[in-house]
Amino acid sequence: MLTRVGCHLCEVAESDVARICGELGVEWTTEDVDADDELRAEYGDMVPVIQIDGRTHGYYAVEEARLRKALT
Fold first, then answer.
1. InterPro entries attached here (predicted)?
2. Domains, the chain, ordered by start
3. What is the per-residue pLDDT for 49?
4. What is the mean pLDDT of the chain?
5. What is the pLDDT at residue 5?
6. Cβ 40 vs Cβ 32: under 8 Å
């Protein structure tokens, strides 16, 4: 998950991803887009960005049913 410090949407999405991944037993991580110039240039206006195995799954908010399906 790509996030930004101080981003309210990121905080909500992180909470959702943590809950869903916890229920499914899936490991996950976050990365601050502002810590990497390339990430900031590509995704800076779209955070939070949910990625699965390095591929973009969604932006801005977690679509719970869709994320669960992709992770199972």
1. Glutaredoxin-like, Thioredoxin-like_sf
2. 2-71 (3.40.30.10)
3. 97
4. 96
5. 95
6. no
Residue with tokens 């990365």: 31
Six token digits for residue 4:
């930004």
Over residues 29-63, the pLDDT tens digits come to 999 999 999 999 999 999 999 999 989 999 999 99
Residue 36 to residue 27: CA distance in whole angstroms: 22
Give CA angle at 33 (19, 62), nearest 5°. Answer: 30
From the list 23, 25, 24, 26, the residue with the least C-alpha distance to 1 is 26
Q: Element (H or E) spanning 11, and its range?
A: helix 8-24
Model pTM score: 0.91
